[in-house]
Amino acid sequence: MPRRLAPALLGALLLCATPCAATAQTNRRPGGAPAASAAARAARLRRGINLSHWFAQAPRGDYSDRHLDTHTTPRDIELIRRMGFDHVRFTVEPAPLFDEAAPARLRPRHLRRLDAALDVLLGSGLAVVFDIHPTDEFKLKLRADDRHVAAFADFWRALARHLSRRDPSRLFLEILNEPMVEDPYRWMGIQARLAAAVRAGAPRHTVVATGPRWSSVDQLLLLEPLADRNVIYNFHYYEHHTFTHQGATWGADYWPHLKGVPYPSSPEAVAGMLPGVGNEAAREALRDYGAQRWDAARVGRDIALAAGWARRHGVPLVCNEFGVYRAYARPADRLRWLADVRAALERHRIGWAMWDYAGSFAVAPRQGGRAAPDEETLAALGLTKK
Description:
This protein is an alpha/beta fold. It folds into 2 domains: about 30-240 and about 295-380, Alpha-Beta Barrel (TIM Barrel); about 250-290, no CATH class. It has 15 helices and 10 strands. It has helices spanning about 5-25, 35-40, 65-70, 75-80, 110-125, 135-140, 145-165, 185-200, 215-220, 240-245, 265-270, 280-290, 295-315, 330-345, 375-380, and strands at about 45-55, 85-90, 125-130, 170-175, 205-210, 230-235, 315-320, 350-355, 365, 370. Helix 1 runs parallel beside helix 8 (about 185-200), helix 7 (about 145-165) packs parallel to helix 8 (about 185-200) and helix 13 (about 295-315) runs parallel beside helix 14.
């Protein structure tokens, strides 16, 4: 181990010492559920869709009754089922529930709204990944604020206890969306502590865990699995971002300067675009993207790395986000990328959830306020509307 990593590892071990030890001693088969149960449950997560901007990422932080009643309705849930999806990833912003001064006291009014949504989702026959999906500010505090970590663990313990009455074969508890902890060792310590809190509240439910730094494949490869065996691991796939996030106004500064980026990529494919890109960083990113020759084979090699990690560790794995920002991508190229990623995942028997249902990456863009299935996107996903 390089000497420069030793302090980070020590900090992570100190952070999780008690919870990690408890997990190792008492949760090798938590709730009587061996690793085989997690694998069997993962089979329920074959083809899914993310429910964005409903209980998380709401515009202007609006989680009013009006927003929650109208953004995603029982009609939408039925449409998701008819499009052939078997599960949803239910993204949940913790702020309306969470008071850091008293994290175990969940705010009852919003909790009732969450319960009502879960009743509809589970009542439709879909499995549900309950994903804690906070703001960047919330996640950044986890990097260095141990009191915030402790409060988040208390919050998860109380929330898991509340959710534990629901069917553990159909409700999955995802610890945190896209951690922003840069140090992988610190993240492993934090995740062990949070997983132990979830397990204390919900002994029979399957936990969904991930790697640090936005859940990418390369970060998954750094992860040591938890001692708890009733866990599914996940990663997100948006490679290459120069293509999948072209024109997006969040994230990398160069993204807004790119539009009409091709897929597959090659030096020849991007050469004609380069003179028209005025931003130097965007031009360099586009040139690099072309040189890397992104295509089905390149995507397949990435997915194979993730699959190999799961195979070596004997753990189930899912990809619970992938997609292309629709606004500026060429439709045919977007469909090809979706089909290539989906095919690679299925070749390795990795379940998936596309981002997203009716947002800016949508499988069902809104027309006149109502989501309407995009048949070509469904075909790229290997699905057809019933």
